[in-house]
Amino acid sequence: MVDQSSLQPGSVFAGDFRIVRAMSAGGMGAVYVAEQLSTGKPRALKVMLPALVADPSLRRRFEQEARIASLIESEHVVEVVGAGVDAASNLPYLAMELLNGEDLSQLVTRGGPLASADVARIFEQLCHAVGAAHRVGVVHRDLKPENIFLAQARRAGAVYMVKVLDFGIAKIVAEATTRQTAAMGSPIWMAPEQADQSPVTPATDVWALGLIAFYLLAGRSFWKTGNDDYATVPQVLKEVLFEPIVPASLRATELGRRLPPAFDGWFARCVARDPAARFADATEAAAALMSVLHGDIALDATYLPAGLPSAPPASAYPSTATTGPVGMSGTAPPAYVTGNVLPVQTVAPTGRSGKVPIGVAIAILVGVTLFGTVAAGALWWMTKRPSATPVTAFGSPQDASGPSLDAATANDAQSPSETGSSDAAPPVDAGPAKVSVNVHGPSTPTHSPPTPAFPSPPTPAPPAVSPPIAPPAPPPPPQRSLTDLANSAVSADWWTARRALEPKLYAGTATVDDVRLLLKVCKNQRDGACQKACKRVLAGRKP
C-alpha cells in the first residue's frame, strides 16, 4: 500500500503536485486531489504500488502503458496529463484531469436501477471510448462501475459526460503480480479467460459490458455471490467459471426487477464463456444493445422501481418516446439527476365510445316488450266486454214480448241476397249478448238488418315492438404478417418485426426465412451489426 505519511496535505509530490486532500484508496493505490504547480490547475493524482516498478523493465513498461490513453480517439477517455515515477519515494503515479461527479457504482447505490433511456445514453458514450480503444488494439481488462465516471459536462446542452478510467493500468498490474484475482480487483466483472491467463481480446471487455448493463438495469450484480458481502473469491470464481448461466430475465425476477423484452439474447451473447461466441468488440455490442433498449423505450419504459406508482397502460395515452438514437449531448431527464425513474405523467383521453352496454340493451328490450303486451291486453278487454244494457235495432230498449234471434240467426237474416235490400248493413259481431229485432206484425217477420246504436270499433293490432338496434361491432384489426412489416416504409413497422425476429436469431430458433426478413429490416434501418449477425447465421455460423 502507498505510504500515506509522505502524502499529507501541503506536501509536494514529484516536484509538480501539491497535495490538497485524499480522495479515495483502492487495490492499486490511492487518489488525491492535487494542484499542478506548473499550470495552477487542480488534478487527480493517482499514486500506485511500488511493486509496479520493482525492476527497470517494469518501470519502462509502466511509463509506456500509462500514456496509452492518449492513443484513443475519444473524448470519453479520461485525459492523462502526466505519468512517471517519483524519484524521492519510488512511487509510480498518474496525473489526470479532475472530474466532478460520481461513478456508476455510487450512482446505483444512491438512486437504484436506471431506466432504459438512461442506460442507452451511458452506454453510447461508454462504448464510444471502449470501441475506439479496441480499434487501436487496446483492451481495458478491468471495466467495472467504479472505473466508469459520470462527470459534469463542460459543454452547453449536456448534463453529464461519461469518462472511462485506468486504460492500460490493468495490464501493468496483471504483469507485475502473481495474484491474478488481486490484480483485477473484484472478480465479479472478470471474464473467464482472465482467470486462467488465456489470451485477452476485445471480447474480454464485452463480457464486462454485459454484466455492467445488467447491473444498471437491475440495480444488483448478476452473480449471486456478487450480492453476498461474505462471499469468498473461490465462491465467486466457481459461479463465474462453472455454474450454469441463467437467463438475465430470470435472475432479474429473482431480484424483483424487470428487464427489456429482448435483453436476454443480447446478454447471453455477451457472457458466453467462449470468447469466440461473444460480440467481436464494444462497437458491435453497443449497436445490438441500442436496438434492445430503444425498442423498450418505444414500448413506453415498462420498468418502474419498487415503491413508485405504476404508469398508465400504453393504450391509455399516446406514446411520446422516440426510437431514434440517443445523442450523448442530449439533456438527461430529471429522473437521472435524482437517481429515480419517474412514471410518465399523462392524462387519459375522455369522451364516449358510442356503444350501448349489453345489460342496458337487454333491459330496454324487456321493458318495451312488457309494455306492448300490457297495452294490447287492455285494448282487447275494452273491445270484448259485454254491453251494459241491450238495445234494439232502433236504439230503444229491448221489447220483451217480441221474438229474439241469437247472433248466428241474426247474421243469417242479414244476408242481402235474401232480402233484396241494397242498404243492408254488414254483419256485426255482438258478442255473447242477445240482439232483439222489432217486427211489424206478430206473425210476419221482417228481414231488416239490425243496426246497433253503438257499433264496436275494430280491434286494433298490438303495436309492433322493434328491439333496439345494437351498434355494429368494430371490425377486428387486420393481421399483418412479418413480411408485410418488413416490406413497409414505416419505421415503427420495422421495429415491430425486429422485436419479433431478433430474439429468435440469438436463441438459435430462427428459420432461414426469419433471418432473411430480419436482414431486410436491418438494411432498412442501416444497422451494420445486425446485418452482419444475420449474414453469419445464413452462412451457418453463430450470430
Quick recap of the structure?
The chain has helices at 56-66, 104-111, 116-135, 169-176, 180-183, 192-195, 202-218, 233-241, 248-254, 263-270, 282-298, 334-338, 358-384, 407-413, 416-419, 482-487, 491-507, 512-525, 528-538, and strands spanning 12-13, 17-25, 29-36, 42-48, 80-85, 92-97, 101-103, 148-152, 160-164, 404-405, 435-436. It is of the alpha+beta class and 543 residues long.
Key phrases:
single chain; 543 residues; alpha+beta; Phosphorylase Kinase, domain 1; Transferase(Phosphotransferase), domain 1; 3 domains; six-stranded antiparallel beta sheet; three-stranded antiparallel beta sheet; 10% strand
How would you describe this protein?
Mean pLDDT is 73; it is low at 178-185, 299-356 and 387-441. The strands form three sheets. Strands 1-2-3-4-6-5 form a six-stranded antiparallel beta sheet, covered by helices on one side. The chain has 19 helices and eleven strands. A hairpin with a 3-residue loop joins strand 1 (12-13) and strand 2 (17-25). Helix 1 runs antiparallel to helix 4 (169-176). The chain folds into three domains: 4-96, Phosphorylase Kinase, domain 1, CATH 3.30.200.20; 101-307 and 320-342, Transferase(Phosphotransferase) domain 1 (Transferase(Phosphotransferase), domain 1); 480-543, no CATH class. The protein is an alpha+beta fold.
